[in-house]
Structures are given as C-alpha cells and as structure tokens.
Amino acid sequence: MSGSEQESTYRTTHGTIERVARESYGRLVAYLSSNTHDVGSAEDALSNALVAALETWPRDGVPQNPEAWLLTTARRSFIDLARHRQVAEASEPTLALLREESKDMTFSPQFPDERLKLLFVCAHPAIDPAMHTPLMLQTVLGLDAARIAHAFLISPTTMGQRLVRAKTKIRDGGIRFEIPQERALPQRLGAVLEAIYAAFGIGWDDMAGVDQSGRDLAEEAIWLARVLLQLMPQEAEVQGLLALMLHCEARRAARRGPDGRYMPLSEQDCQKWSLPLIEEAERHLREASSRSRTGRFQLEAAIQSVHAERARSGGIQWNAVMMFYDQLIRISPTLGTRTGYAAAVAEAKGAEAGLATLNAIDSDDISAYQPYWAVRAHLLQQLGKTSEALDAFDRAIGLTEDPAVRRFLLQRRG
Amino acid sequence: MQFALLIFEPPEAFAARNADENDPYLGAWRAYHKALVEADIFVGGSPLQPPETGTTVRLKDGKRRVQDGPFADTKEQLGGFTILELPSLDAALEWAARCPAASIGAVEVRPVSPEYLRRVTG
Predict the structure, then answer these.
(1) pLDDT digits (tens, 9 = 90+) for A324-358
(2) Contact, A335 vs A369, CB < 8 A?
(3) What residues in B contact A406, CB-CB < 8 Å?
(4) What is the ipTM of this complex?
(5) Which of A58, A288, B36, B101 has the fewest Cβ atoms within 10 angstroms?
(6) DSSP A203-248
(7) Are the beta carbons of B38 and A393 separated by less than 8 Å?
(8) What is the pTM of this model?
(9) What three-state secondary structure class fits B2?
(10) Which CATH architecture group holds B2-121?
(11) Which of A153, A367, A396 sits opposite B94 (nearest CB)?
C-alpha cells in the first residue's frame, strides 16, 4: 500500500470510529453501567476501547460489527478496572456478574438499549439539578468536561470535579437504573425534558452567530430529544419539546442580519427560515396535541408555531400568543413565562396593558433578569416615558452578555 | 464573599476613552455599572489610565530600577478592576461574562483573600 493510500484508509477508518462512537456512545455507557451503576468506570472502559480501535482498526480493518467489538473490548477493560478497585472494595458478586455477562456477550452482538434508564438516572431528584444537563451531555453523548464547562460558564477543573462527584453519588447512593413507575413518571420525565431543553438553551444563547461549540450543543439537544422520542413514542411532552426546539432551530439563519446585527423574532426575514424544520415541528406538535395531554413544552411549541405562521400569513396572531402564555403561566409561572406573557399582552392590547402586567410581577429575581428589563424599556419608550425608559434600557444593556444584543439595545436606547 | 474582576482591554478600548458621550463602549459600561449597583453587589473599583501612563519600579541588588510603561508587555492590558460581593464563583463568572470588556478583551475573576489580608493587617 502506498503512503497516500495508507493515509486515506486511516482517514476513512478514523471517520468510522468517530461515527460509531457518536451513535453508540450512550448505548454502550448505558448498557455497561446499568447493572453496576458505575458510570465513571463504564466511560473509562469505553474510552480505552476507543483507543484500542484507533490502534487496531486501521491495521486490521474495521470489524463486521463495530459496536459489538467496542462493547466486548470495553467489557474486558471494565472487568480489569473493577478488579483493580475490587482489591479495595471486595465486590466479588459484581465481578461474578460481569464475568457471567461477558460470556453471553460473545455469542450475541445484540444488547438492550438502556439509554432511557441512564437519562432518568442523570435527572434523578437525588442529584443536584444543576448537574442534570452536564451529566447527560457527558454520559449519553460523550462530550468532554472542558466543552461542557465552556457552555456552562464554569472552569473546566470545577466541572470535572462536579461530574465525578455526581457519578460517585450514582454509584454509591443507591440510585436505581429503572424507568420510574407510572405515578412518579410525569415528574421524573419532566426533569429529563428540562435538562435537555437547558442544553438547547445554552447552545442557543451561546451561538452568537460564530461560536461553533454553541451551535453543536443545540444540535446535540435535538439529537437527545429524538432519542427520547424513539424510546417513548407515546409521550406528548417529549414530542412537544422536540417541536419547540425544531421551531427555534428553523430560524437559525435569520437570527442575525447580514452585518451580524441581532434580529428580534418579529423582525426576522421569514424567507430565511427553514421550511422543512418548521413542517417537521408542526407535525410533531399536531401528533402531540392529538393525545390530549397538554403540557409546558407543547404550549411553548404552540407559541412558536403562531410566530411561524407569519411566513404564510404575514401577520402574528397576538391574541393566540397571549392565550397560550396564559395557559403556560398556570403550569409554569416562571419569570420568563410571565415576562413573555406581558410582552404578548402589550402587542395584543397595547403598551399600557403590557406595562401593567409587567408591574404585577413581584419578584426579587428581576434585578438580574435581562428580558424583563428589555421588555420594560421597550414599553416605556412606546409610552413616551423617556427617562424611565432610559433607566430600564441601561439595566437591560448592563445585564446583556451577547455583544450583538447589546449593540441592538444601545441603538434602541438612542 | 468578594471577587475582583480584573479587566484586560485591547488598545482600541483605551483609545475609546477619549470618544464622545455617544460611544457605544462607554454606554455599555454605564449600563453595566448601573446593573451592578442596582443588583447591590458593587463594592468598589475603578478604571485605570492607559498602560503607557504606568511606571514600574523594582529594587534589584539594592538598586532602584524604574521603567516606563506597564509591568507586562502584552496586547491586552489591565484597564481597571471591580470588586463585587457575591455568593459564589458561579455568580461572579456570570457577571464577568456580562462585562463589556469580555467580548473584546478578557476578564479575570479572582476571589479576594480576606485571610491573608488579616495576616497582613494583624
């Protein structure tokens, strides 16, 4: 084989490993840890197997069933790791179990998909809610701690420590790998959905038009929601969440003007929206609604659906937006929902009514909540209350992280 | 606890200090400062004159060495500092990300050291 042929074989093999790793990572970690509860060792074992693949596949060729090869190799490494620890912890039953399962594996390349259980473990109530999303990103998608740390605005070392602590809790804290019972399911599923949506929100905020890692995080969140829907095809809220994210994703290209300027939703050029994504979102939303189990994410998706209608009708049905927000507040009276409701009221009934709704929000948290001040500034300006508006603009600008949004607000402020 | 935000700025930011009242960077800083005060976390701080106004002093082998300009010769220079009272590093990083200098230069977040201060002041 010539040098360049070798090089190209290497590249193809490398690509295969990356693809298999991406598609199988979560399945392999979930399966390796579902009996032992040892997510950290499962990850270490899999990463050893991936290193081995990088060494042997370019030389010996890609195995017929790459996933089974990775699992067998990871298992061997897992047993070594467990044996190492076992000296200290004497967990012979675990080792026996592993050996037993290892024998089965050689005969069957098929193994059950335990990712759903792993998702529920990551968003377990016994684990710090702030760690739900990072855990999912790492264990199910295989993102490294440094990248997660950037997205969460935490130092990489700290994020690494927090992830290790959370995994120790999973291993030693008696958290079970199971699908929650019917009674507990809505709440537990809610935590899983929240964590996926948080990943999407971070990817979105981070995007700023240039940040490649931010872009990927939003895509990863959509991928997770698709996996979840595949595993729970009957759950309306799973489909609602997917619809919501697809609607937002459809507008990616329109969120910035040609000069990198921030474009608010109602001023975006809807020619730039992705119609296939909007159609997919609408299909999911319709299917979700047909199950007659309304929830937070379906309502949020419905609001985005009204905005998407502008591409066809040229206008926005603000009364519909207001109505959906009104229902949303009953389920989820967050600062974000209430601010969104006030903005919709202002569009539907006038700035005066919107400001009154905004004034009714009584919370200590508004002092650091940017959207509240942005909406307030906008409404005060419309009502000609200039000095109050300037003050609110300053608060909004001072709380803004995205330079494009900051420029936009500074211009509006005048 | 208290955190210092050390503000590192590129030459353009120092040049913009002489711009008029409508300068967007100045506007962003005014707004940021107002947000810090309204959130009741601002302890103190100040912008600094540009790096070329700095003078660096060392004593080497008992001899005084005085050098024009700043201690470190890098593109981004210390342009100011802010001390904030916040519950955690996480909160300090949030505020650092909102700082107008974060998108054109860098903001270093350092916890202040009250323990060492106590040993110094006795």
Answers:
(1) 999 999 998 999 999 999 999 999 999 999 999 99
(2) yes
(3) 28, 100
(4) 0.84
(5) A58
(6) HHHHHTTT-HHHHHHHHHHHHHHHHHHHH-TT-HHHHHHHHHHHHH
(7) no
(8) 0.85
(9) strand
(10) 2-Layer Sandwich (3.30)
(11) A153
